[in-house]
Here is the input.
Amino acid sequence: MCKNKYLNYILTSIVCAAMHLSAYAADNVLRVDHFVPHISTVPVNAGAPVGLYVRERVLASVARDAATRKQTAPVVLFVHGGFSPSAVAYDLDYKDYSWMAHLARAGFDVFAMTHTAYGASPKPVMDDPCNVDPKQQALLIPHVLKAPCAPRYPFKLVSSQTEWDEVEAVANYLMRLRGVKKISMVGWSTGTPRIGGYAAKNPDKVERIVFLAPAPFFADDKPPATFPEPGAPVILQTRERLEKERWLADVKCDGQIDDDSVRDVMWRELMKEEGVGATWVPGGLMRAPNRMNYGWRENVPKIQAPTLIVLGEFDNFERRQDSWKALTVKDKLFLKVACGSHYLQYEKNRKALHAATLEWLRRGTVNGQRSGSLSADATGNIR
Here is the structure.
């Protein structure tokens, strides 16, 4: 149920809200879809007005109180990683896998943004298969390409700065929407330098941070000498590479994936978000932007918000500790999760991830501890 008062309150956003009277009565977790106005800084469409897709999960009672300014719940913004848009990374509609819904049921007002080139956000120049990185065009032959072709837009698509700009646009929108001065942030994988850069540049606007599987530092932390950097705008990932190389190779414990059906569910939802890439080859594939990465090493020491880092023991464990070692904030806590891979939120120990995140965002502690190191065993017990 969409009320005019609610729509007026969120100013210029285009909002699609699935709010029904029965949901309010039962205090269900609602899903509300927002498109946040932004003037793009992505080079190929710089200066153009775009809408960035943001999903909200919130209890009906919390949404009602927020709309009437009766009470404001703590706001959390999730930012996705390199391939999976936020709707799949954090809100998988299957059993108890939705990390966002877990927090929403606990009373948080939970949002997840989708960057340019993913999901329902803009995908400039990405529908042209010639704009795929030439090293990966063989995947498209003979399906949508007869032979290799040169990129028609011969540059990388997005940069760390354009993504920080998008995080800032969404964060400002949420603070206006809910009338708060600070929000908490959660990032997975490449999402960690995205929120880390924002947090370093806006320390007064970030309450707490959770980094899941933080990205290792980039080899070169400086912006490219030529902007945009020459290259191709689109890179690809097949289901085979996602599962066999990036996930199942790091499944080393019995029962680590407690429901194998989640793999089919995840891929099906990824293909729903994907768009035209789902039709390019049998079974579909995922597209992502070729990115100009920089600033991660420089920004981590500037982060002032209390930060929880969660890392699976089989997830490139040594390299992914770069940000932990570089953090200078007093309240920083490291949680090592046994029998965990890079896809921890889809595995048995997701429950430890959910529990630790909830306590950290609510109190700034895990098991009552504000700093140092903890571990979760194979059954999810944190000690």
User: Anything to note?
Assistant: The longest strand covers residues 29-39. Residues 1-25 have pLDDT under 50 and may be disordered. DSSP finds 13 helices and 14 strands in the chain.
